[in-house]
Specification:
This protein has helices at 16-25, 33-54, 65-72, 77-84, 99-102, 105-134, 164-179, 188-194, 200-213, and strands spanning 59-61, 88-89, 93-95, 221-222, 225-226. It is mainly α. The protein has 2 domains: 10-102; 105-226, no CATH class. A 3-stranded antiparallel sheet has the order 1-3-2. Strand 2 (88-89) and strand 3 (93-95) form a beta hairpin. The protein is elongated, with a radius of gyration of 24 Å. The chain starts with 15 loop residues before the first helix and ends in an 18-residue tail after the last strand. The relative contact order is 0.08. Residues 224-244 have low confidence and may be disordered.
Length: 244
């Protein structure tokens, strides 16, 4: 049974492909660009809802470009989608590419977890700000090395991870640990762990894997195999007893 919602990104309105589809539909109409984009976004929402309601892999058997145009109320809409790669047509019907990346139950669950983690990170930052205000009169404020890290800004991040993807992954991990009341007393141990990752993408994947599985720790992968130095996944042993 389909869920009651689908993913619709806030930046969809200004997406280059949306603009390309709007331009393809502009011939023979006096509608302003903003109205054309509204048609495109509304049509996309309708097509994605159909795929979510009546398919498990994004394919709508029996549908044609004419059927899609009729469903959306926009003539030439299906052809414009096909020209941009946002719709595929075959003898079986029409297919929404990459449908399973965004509209399966597991994909929705990952998105919900990301939202919760982001909210938890924001709350942690607000709590930290309030604590810092209370400590303004402190004669010896704690040094950064002794602070319990709340966000990536509290850590010395390796150069390979010092980008939007890497810092977002670190923030998600810290929020996840704080939500479980397993926060770090200092940032030293986590900083040593971060140096094991070769790229921000590897760290992002490791955070997704650990939070989805409910693990207490992160582990890097080497040559496609999980490392054994600090893995805390099911069935794995590690030499040190310290939890991080």
């Amino acid at each position: 049974m389909a869920d009651e919602w689908i993913k619709l990104r806030k930046k969809l309105w200004n997406h280059p492909t949306v603009q390309q589809i709007a331009c393809a539909l502009s011939a023979g109409t006096d509608l302003p660009p903003s109205a054309l984009r509204a048609q495109v976004v509304g049509g996309l929402f309708r097509v994605w809802c159909l795929a979510d309601d009546y398919s498990t892999d994004g394919t709508l058997p029996g549908y044609t470009v004419e059927t899609v145009d009729e469903e959306t109320g926009v003539r030439g809409f299906a052809a414009a989608l096909v020209s941009t790669g946002w719709l595929e047509v075959s003898a079986e019907g029409v297919t929404v590419p990459r449908f399973t990346e965004h509209n399966t139950a597991s994909a929705r669950l990952r998105d919900q977890r990301r939202v919760r983690a982001a909210r938890a990170a924001l709350k942690a930052q607000e709590k930290r700000s309030r604590r810092e205000k209370r400590e303004e009169r402190s004669v010896e404020p704690p040094t950064p090395a002794n602070k319990s890290p709340a966000t990536s800004r509290d850590l010395t991040v390796p150069l390979a991870l010092d980008n939007e993807t890497g810092r977002a992954a670190i923030d998600r991990w810290l929020a996840y640990k704080q939500e479980r009341r397993e926060g770090y007393k200092t940032g030293d141990y986590l900083e040593r762990t971060l140096r094991r990752f070769a790229s921000a993408e590897d760290l992002d994947a490791a955070v997704d894997e650990a939070t989805t599985a409910g693990w207490k720790g992160l582990f890097a992968r080497s040559n496609g195999k999980a490392g054994t130095d600090h893995a805390t996944g099911p069935g794995q042993k590690h030499k040190e007893t310290k939890k991080w």
